[in-house]
Amino acid sequence: MKILVCITKTPDTTAPVRFSADNKEYNPAGVAYILNPYDEWYSLVCALELTEKHGGAVTVINVGPADNETLIRKALAIGAADAIRIDANPSSALFVAKQIAGYAKDKGYDAIFCGKETIDYNGAEVGPMIAELLDLPFLSFANHLELDGRKAKVSRDIEGGTEVVEVELPFVLSAAKDLAEQRIPNMMGIMKAKQKPLQVIPPAPFEDKAVIAVYETPPAKSSVRLIDPENMDELVRLLHEEAKII
Fold it and tell me: Rounded to whole angstroms, what are the CA distances from 174 to 54, 106, 110, 213, 235?
C-alpha cells in the first residue's frame, strides 16, 4: 500500500490563548507546539499498521514553515518512510487542502489519512476538502479499519452509534479515537529519522477566498447565582429573562 498521511502542528492543550494587538493573528510567544494528536496517535499509526501487514510505505505531508521540521521528524521516527513539507504558512483549511490535493493528485496513493480534526480549530474540514478536490470517497471519524485486497471495511462514529461501510481503494479517511494505539518513537527510530528523506516543495498558487477578519475571546463567565429552593418563581423568571442557552 502507498499511503499519504497529513500531519499538522498545533499548540499544546495547555498553551495560553493570546492574539496580536490587532486581534488578527494568534500570538505564539511562549507556546509549546506538538503534532496534532489525531494525526499522530491514530491516523499515522493506523497507516503504519496497514503497511506492516500488507506491505508498502507511508509518506507524511505537512503544509508549514521550516520550523515544523522537528515535528515532521517525529513522524518519521514513529515509522513513516519519508516526508513532504509544502513551504507555506497555512492561512485556511481550504489552502491546506488545495496544497495537499495538488501534490497528491498524480502520485497514485491508495489512501490519504488525516486526523478527524485539529485540537486548536476543531474544524474537521481538511479531510473532506481533499476528498472533494480529488473526487475520492471520504470516510469521516473512522474508529476501525480492515483491509481485504482493494476493499476496506470501516467503522465510523455517528451520532448515537457506529456505522460500518465498505469502500474500494483509493479513498480519504479521517481518524478518530480507537482507530489505533499511540506509538512512542524509540531511540533507533529517532536515529533513523535523521536520515530519512524530507522533501521541501513550493506551494501552488492559490488565492484564499476566506480571510480572518478578527479573533475574539469568549466573554468571561459570570459568577454563580444561588437561588433559594423555595423561590421557584425567581428561578423561572431568571431562566426566561437572563439565561442563555448555547
Answer: 20, 21, 15, 28, 44
Instruction: State the amino acid at position 200 in one-letter form.
Output: V
Residues 83/75, Cβ–Cβ less than 8 Å: yes
Helices 126-134 + 93-104 axis angle, to 10: 40
Residue 232: Cβ within 10 Å count: 10
User: Bridge-partner residues for 120, per DSSP?
Assistant: none
pTM (predicted TM-score) = 0.87
- At a CB cut-off of 8 Å and minimum separation 6, what does 72 contact? 7, 60, 62, 83, 85, 198
Q: How confident is the model at residue 28 (pLDDT cuts 50, 70, 90)?
A: confident
Residue 103 CB coordination number (10 Å)? 20
- Helices (runs of H) and strands (runs of E) counted in the chain: 7, 11
* Per-residue model confidence as pLDDT tens digits over 129-175: 999 999 999 999 999 999 999 999 999 999 989 999 999 999 999 99
Q: What angle do CA 98, 177, 93 make, to 5 degrees?
A: 20
Determine the residue type at 215: Y
What are the structural domains, with CATH classification, of the chain? 2-212 (3.40.50.620)
Kindly give, in sequence order, each residue whose CB lies less than 8 Å from that of residue 93, ignoring residues fewer than 6 positions away.
121, 123, 125, 126, 129
